[in-house]
Amino acid sequence: NIKAVLQISSERVGLLGASDAADEALALHPNTVTSALIQHEVKDVGTHILVCAVSYLSLGGETQSFRKFYKFQVMKPIDIKTRFLNAELSNEVLVEAGVENITSGPICLEKVTLEPSPHYNVVAIDSLYPSLTGSTSSSPSSLPSSVFGNINVLNPHDTRQYLYCLTPKPGTNINRINSNKEVGAASVPPPPNTIGKLDIVWRSNMGDKGRLQTSQFVRSNTAVMLGDVAVRVVSIPASVTLEEPVPLILAIENNSDRSVEFMLEFLAGTGGCEWHDVTSRALPVIPVAATQHLHLKLLPLALGVQNICGVRLRDLSNPSYIMDVSKLGQVCVTAPERVAAPEHGSCDTVNAAAIITSLAALTVA
Known about the structure:
CATH topology of the largest domain: Immunoglobulin-like
Protein name: Trafficking protein particle complex subunit 13-like
Strand content: over 45%
Structural class: mainly beta
Family: Belongs to the TRAPPC13 family.
Helix content: under 10%
Shape: elongated
CATH class of the largest domain: Mainly Beta
Distance between the termini: 137 Å
InterPro entries: TRAPPC13, TRAPPC13_C, TRAPPC13_M, TRAPPC13_N
CATH superfamily of the largest domain: Gamma-adaptin ear (GAE) domain
């Protein structure tokens, strides 16, 4: 009989001859060849060893056997780099995925999709939707198509960028607001951390099919998400004067399930307003369900309605998490009041006239 085993580091996977039917004797006549087709989905990179063992009975009835070892390396065919972005004014999550071909030959990407978790709906932003052009047909040609075309060939070391928008399903608790507090008879469940996974199918330049599924993308529990922190202006004059510092009160509300500590950085304005403060400052720890008020100053530099400069919050427990808040409101900037001109006949006018008369008399003399 013939047996084949694939050895991967400390794991051995039986590919052929593991069943009871494989123990049946196979007659091999002189000058004949027998073969077996083995298919196995390789999921791990690194060194693989294929062990083929053959045992047979000789003409004298003696059991003989031999083994062959085939060692080969499994390399990553593609490299995936992902980035998560939180929408500024909603609970939407944007997932940007870069798929790079790191093989030595071109590959054809047949499918690149994001399979969302049960808590989210997904929309591929890099797809073309015929409904936008007014088509209502349900034929295959009316289905969303990729911006890269029907034949998506990826040359070595080239990268394709894919963008997906994940929206929480109705009733999904995304924010971890008072997760241990009872609401009525039931408690608010914790938010779903798993977002989804990428499913990629491609073919090599020889037509060999490959498939890769990533692990579930997880929203970090240590990072504070956008919905967990609210930043807003609670006090500012409706009308301010040009080039005069304006007092402003900024409120930062912690709605997460843990205490947070931020580094506050001031973003540059567009020229209409600028911050009148240091460039950054470390904020005290904000407890759960607490609000911290910051007294800041704004310097108007142009007349008219101007946008208030934005701020950036950097989580000190997870420095890679950055939250930019650019829309804090607007303020009306007016010109400063002019000093009234002196009235006719005042002392200043009389003195000026006397000086001019004296100068005229000296000139004549």
